[in-house]
Specification:
- The protein has 402 residues and is α/β, with parallel strands linked by helices.
- 59% of the residues lie in helices and 11% in strands.
- It has 16 helices and 9 strands.
- The strands form 2 sheets. A 7-stranded parallel beta sheet has the order 5-4-3-6-7-8-9, with helices on both faces. Strands 1-2 form a two-stranded antiparallel ribbon.
- Strand 3 (149-153), helix 8 and strand 4 (173-178) form a beta-alpha-beta unit.
Length: 402
Amino acid sequence: MREWLRDVLARRPGWMNALLGFCAYMTFLYLPFDFFVKPIARDEEVWFGVVLTGFAAKATEPLHWALYAAGSYGFWRMRPWMWPWAALYTAQVAIAMAVWPLLEVGGAKGLLMGAVSFIPFAALSVALWNARDRFQAPRRPLRERYGEWALVTGASSGIGAAFARALAREGFSLVLCARRRERLDALAAEVAKECAVATRVVPVDLAAPEGAERLTAGVADLEIAVLVNNAGFGSAGRFELQDEQRLVEMIQVHCTAPLVLTRRLLPKMRSRGRGAVVFTGSLAAKQPMPLHATYAATKAFVELLGEGLWAELRGSGVDVLVVEPGTTTTEFQAVAGELPHEGETPERVVAVALERLGEQPSVAIGWWRWLRGNLGMRLLPRSLLARVAQGAIEKQTPPSLR
């Protein structure tokens, strides 16, 4: 706990940690009390020095809450969009602190009180304005952070191919792994031409018990700096209608292969003091998933494995991230036997993953998906979650498989 707290506080200066604490207090304690408990007749809100009371005050409290919730998240993650909005909001508070005494007290006393109240908030606004580099510090190139070679499994299409292209643009040489050699060769030629990087194609079926061993043998002469455990597939429908061997292969691809690959490549990363391991998980890991029961179970394994390794490897120079997409527009739907439905693009999934790599143990793609995956799991009975999920998945599953 002490080490975690030290890591959290080290991300920002002390005065900014104080602002984070204040925003959290307003978000989770004061404003919920104000909105849900305080009677309307006693409610007051101040905007630009103008005091709102009664219903007008109550009506503006959700906006106040949203601003402080954004501040809590923004300071916690040091998000770039905090500049200039944090400084501008604090300037609004400074104006309010100057105007309110003039309107409520008046005269020389009100002027003096306004000046005294204005100065510290104005200074804080200037400090936030000058803190732009803390919120928008240039990212150190991934190739410089981790090394030369990146290994991507499931690279022949979808999220895996998007990872390969994005890492090539970052300057990594690539090892591309999947079952379909012709697709890997085409992708290797594409990135070699467009990004001038070295490539190696290792066609391996990770569903085979010896697949992970064959892949590690195929890269034994390379220093793998980034491992992207992305290979995977789904199989929609009632459990008893699924092919048993197919389900066993899913466990092999999603659980056993990433475990073996990470276990064999991690020691060299750790001895070099730098490297990264990315797991492609899923929001399906957050709850029971009828009609995708085995898939969700394997992704829960991936999530817990990756987040556990993230904690183990803190301070070693090796970063770990579990990326948790929801529905994505890839071949997954067709291979899984689902009905077509909209989703996120693979490029968006990869962009978020590479942006958050080194910052947190896992990342969900999109606010709504994060809320659905996390709040539901924490607040609702698992029996209800399972039934709600079943209703949603049924709409994506052919009637013959329900």
